[in-house]
Structures are given as C-alpha cells and as structure tokens.
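Note to self: keep these together.
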Amino acid sequence: MNSALSPSAESLLTQAAFDRLLECLDANRERAGEKYEVLRLKLIKFFEWRACAVSAIDLADETLNRVARRIDGGEELQNLSNYAYGVARLVYLEKMRRMKQEEEMRGTLAEEIEDDDAHGAEQLACFERCLRKLSDGSRELIVSYYQGQRRAKITARREIANRLGIPLNALRIRAHRIRLKLEQCVLNCLDAATASK
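Structure:
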C-alpha cells in the first residue's frame, strides 16, 4: 500500500516538482497550464465515474502530485497521460482499500456495542462522525494501526513506520495523538447529544 498516510510527508508538492510536470506537458508555460487543467478535469471525471464524487478533486490532485514527484525524482515518461491514468488507478484502489478498512473497523466497533443499547448507538454515530473529520492521512493511519491481530498487527505497524520513514516509536506517538484527538471528539459529541435531550 503506497498511499498517502502522512499528508505532511507524502502529499506535499514542491514548486520545482510542479514546474517539471508543467515542462513535461508543454515547453510553453501558458499552454502547459492549459494542458494541466485538461488532464486534471479528465482525472476528476475518472474518479467521479468510479463513484468517488465526494473526493474526486482531492484524488485527482493527489494523482497529479504523485506524477509530479516521480518526474522530479528522475522518472522519464513516454506518455504522461497514460502514466497519470495508471497512477489514478492505484490511487483509486488505495481509496477503496481505506474505505474497506474503515468499514471493518466500524463493524468491529459495532460488534462490541449492544444492539439494544441506545448509548452504544450514539457512541457509534459519534465515532463515525469524528472519524470522518480526520484528514485522510490521519484516518488511514489510525485505521491501519489498529488492524489485525497479534503478529499481523506488529508486522503491519512496522510496514507503516517504514513507509512513513519514521521509527516505530514515532509511529506509536503519532497514532496515540490521533487516538486522543478522536476520543476527545467522541466525548464532545456525546456531551452535545446528551445536552440536546
């Protein structure tokens, strides 16, 4: 999974990388800008056609950022549009994988909550609301961090740390901070729900 777990590390695009992407599109800066917008709109449509309408713009931008970083890293492309669509397919698959992980996490939480427990249903609703408020990177990190059992969980955490280029201890701290933020959001949500009754 080569997804953007850390927006601060993975999703940032330097001006130099963006300039190289434009150069690959056209030597004339103005025409390159026009071609960039056309390609971006096509990528947005690509994601919309795959029922990613809510995040189609973000996914298209992430695709173009990844392409620009690859070009900046020395990748020589024969056909930029085809390459961008290949990257878009990977970004789409990663989005589907994240959604599946989130669904599994919700299912696990739902199993722990009694069906007839009204407070448990409120907790689940608040949890889902707060999970959606997290950035994509934070949401994916916290969901991935708690996936699996025993050895599989340990192995997955090492892979996440390696992918982010940080020590395992730094990953634990990052996950702990996200979890605290999530827990505080759920508590605030539950307090608001109680106050409105």
